[in-house]
Amino acid sequence: MAKKEKSEYMIQAVSHALDLLEQFHHSDVDELGVTELSKRLRLHKNNVFRLLATLESRGYIEQNKVTENYRLGLKSLELGQTFIKKMGLLNQAKPVLENLVEHCNETAYLAIFKEGYIVYLDVVETHNTVRVVSRVGSRLPAYATAAGKVHLAFMSEEELEVILPERELPTFTPSTFGDREKLKEELAKVAEQGFAVDNEELDPGVRCVAAPIRDYTRRIIGSLSVSGPSIRFSDERLKDELMPLVVKAAEDLSTRLGYHKQ
Q1: Strand partners, 211
Q2: Strand runs (DSSP E) across the chain, as ranges?
Q3: CATH 3.30.390.10 fits 10-72, yes or no
């Protein structure tokens, strides 16, 4: 008896669902509507809607209530982050973090964004006696951290409305951006310059500088940062030494993950 090819075992509905998810990878926009997906997949709108409803119920797709279009959901992000971690984000980041600390002797972090928070995955600490307490595994509000602001800076207005629905945000220090509109002005600067600075916005006496990490799809998948006591993080040192080092380190790690500048 001849052995069947694996293609003969394919389930068409599953194949269509995967085709639908892949449209977001190949698209230049973050959101797609039912009509556009129907044209791309050459499927009837009713079939597309049923696929979307199924994927949405499992968290792989979510609908933007403002535009009524669809985008990838958190479950897709979680799968992507799992793949990245399994395939080497942590391994690839370690030597970059170590090299960063070797050059500036300040604590360096690797972080990812998750549901409005920054989660620190790894750290290489400074040799200085006075240092910032390690926060690996902690969930910190993205808008009050440099690592978080480099993620928020490249999000759409609709995404920010969901993540930061309130106009007034909880403050942690006198330097925290408690007004959402002022925060947006800060995020515009971050997007333009390609890095973010935390000027004692979460903890008094602590400053930080962070830059985004991109993968081969050009998406931001994490951030690299260095942090330390404000007494060592003068404006001059931030500008002349720390900012260039962090940006270069983030670019080096992005390159390791397949990112190429256009």
Answers
A1: 224
A2: 61-63, 70-72, 107-114, 117-124, 139-141, 196-199, 206-214, 220-229
A3: no
CATH 1.10.10.10 location in the chain? 10-72
User: In three state form, how does the secondary structure of 56-88 look?
Assistant: HHCCCEEECCCCCCEEECHHHHHHHHHHHHHCC
Q: Is 7 helix (H, G, I), strand (E, B) or coil?
A: helix
What's the whole-number average pLDDT of the chain?
87
**CB distance 153 to 187 below 8 Å:** yes
Among 19, 27, 96, which residue's Cα sits nearest to residue 51?
A: 19
What's the rounded Cα separation, in Å, for the pair 174 and 166? Answer: 19
| CATH class assigned to 78-256 | alpha beta
Specify the DSSP element, H or E, that contains 30: none
Q: Which two tokens stand for residue 167?
A: 């106009």
Cβ atoms within 10 Å, residue 117: 17
Q: For residue 86, which phi and psi values (nearest 5 degrees)?
A: -65, -35
End-to-end alpha carbon distance in the chain: 52
- Point out which residues pair with 108 in neighbouring strands: 124, 226
Mean pLDDT of 227-236: 93
Residues of the chain with CATH 3.30.450.40: 78-256
Residue-wise pLDDT tens digits, 142-190: 999 999 999 999 998 888 888 888 888 999 999 999 998 899 999 999 9
